[in-house]
Amino acid sequence: DTAVSQTPKYLVTQMGNDKSIKCEQNLGHDTMYWYKQDSKKFLKIMFSYNNKELIINETVPNRFSPKSPDKAHLNLHINSLELGDSAVYFCASSRTHYGYTFGSGTRLTVV
Amino acid sequence: KNEVEQSPQNLTAQEGEFITINCSYSVGISALHWLQQHPGGGIVSLFMLSSGKKKHGRLIATINIQEKHSSLHITASHPRDSAVYICAAHSGGGADGLTFGKGTHLIIQP
Question: Maximum CA pair distance of chain A?
Answer without folding.
Answer: 41
